[in-house]
Amino acid sequence: MSAQTVTGRHYLTGKTISVSVEEGIISAIEDTEDGEDQWLAPGLIDLQINGYAGVDFQRDGVSAERLREASAGLNRDGCSRWLLTLITDEWSSLMARLRHFKALRDADEDLRKSIVGWHVEGPFLSPEPGYRGAHPPEVMCDPTPENLDELRSITGDDPVLITVASERSTVNPQIPKARELGFVVSIGHSNASSDELKDAVAQGATGFTHLSNGMPQQMDRHDNIVGRVFDTPGLTAGVIPDTIHVSPQMFRMIHKVMPSDAIYYTTDAMSAGGAPPGRYTVGRIELEVGEDQVVRMPGQTNFAGSALSPIDGIRRAAKMLGLSWRDVWDYMSGNAARFMGLPVGLEAGAPADFRVIEEEGDDIRICR
Ligand SMILES: [Zn+2]
Description:
Blueprint: E1 4-10, E2 16-22, E3 25-31, E4 39-41, E5 44-49, E6 51-52, E7 55-56, H1 64-76, E8 79-87, H2 91-106, H3 109-114, E9 115-121, H4 145-155, E10 160-164, H5 171-180, E11 183-187, H6 194-203, E12 207-208, H7 225-230, E13 236-239, H8 248-257, E14 263-265, E15 278-282, E16 285-289, E17 295-296, H9 310-321, H10 325-328, H11 334-340, E18 355-360, E19 363-366
Parallel strand pairs: 1-4, 5-8, 8-9, 9-10, 10-11, 11-12, 12-13, 13-14
Antiparallel strand pairs: 1-2, 2-3, 4-18, 6-7, 15-16, 16-17, 18-19
Helix pairs in contact: 2-4, 5-6
Residues 121, 133, 189, 210, 214 line the site of zinc ion.
């Protein structure tokens, strides 16, 4: 099979390059003199997708067709690789759902390329109001070695991210086993103390899930979870760049305090992601999505997942930081890939899921 070639400017260097693709893999990248007036950037990677394009992954019996619709929606919105995310439920129901999605994904070549792993967010989280977010506290519990073995037996060799709360009694002691099984461990929905966070890092935790979310609106000004994360080296933080879950001011502060390679962006999208305003579900919970794209539990002020699309996250992040889309792109691509140990975007040997992008004034458009 002969190689296909695409030319354009490299999203980081601005140099004109020619990218050769063979059998879905980038076979070579070379500098070239004349190329098309367009940008080439790796596909976006989102480590927290709870649903998309009207499809809710927290429900039982999602069909292969619906899963392909969600994947197509993400692909259209710039995201080529993502972690299918399941949130807190009774452990046996959660594992049954995971087994179902694993079978659907393994049976479909396109889904195998796009669903590059799994994010299990719960049930080992803080039941405290505010910290628990939309997760049901009554089914939260402490992880056992058997839980971790079961999770690994279902997911095979796939990359797995688990979000856990360090203050639960068996969480930190189980982190070495989770690491041995190849899981990436992220703390989140947690009110862990500084000592508990530092111990989690010492045991092998490397992430903090959607920093500045999964916490109450009011917190102690001297000692709160955001400050403790800033004060704990070794954690890479996920951030939702929608201007709503994290205020523009906090968003800029996170970028000032944390090393740039210790931040990745995620939409944390639920079924309303890439879909119009209306009523949607996250499992048994019904949620409202307004014109402002804010996802709310009816009658309550807390946010529950987002309706943000990946490409819109890039636009909003660039605007909040006063930077170009090219400066923030890697937060939702290379950084996310490195954090999960996935192949990094626009390189020889990586999957050919890069995007051709055209600039239109201040805005960008994904052509293909
Ligand atoms: Zn969450």
